[in-house]
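Note to self: keep these together.
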Amino acid sequence: MLRYDGVRERELLIVPERVVILNRQAGEVLRLCDGTRSVKEIIAVLAERYPHAPVAADVLDFLGRMRSERWLR
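Structure:
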């Protein structure tokens, strides 16, 4: 479950027996994981927002880590 913590001004990923405090970029990626977009579409959205960043590699790496932790299906 993804929630915004106004006190910390951070996104929180709430998983069984754990709360993960995310940075802004991680929260932005996970907000786009809404079940309607493919990974390719998520990368396209972020590449448009951040044209000079290595978005594709960063998103793939981040989502891979989220899946390996079983925090994302």
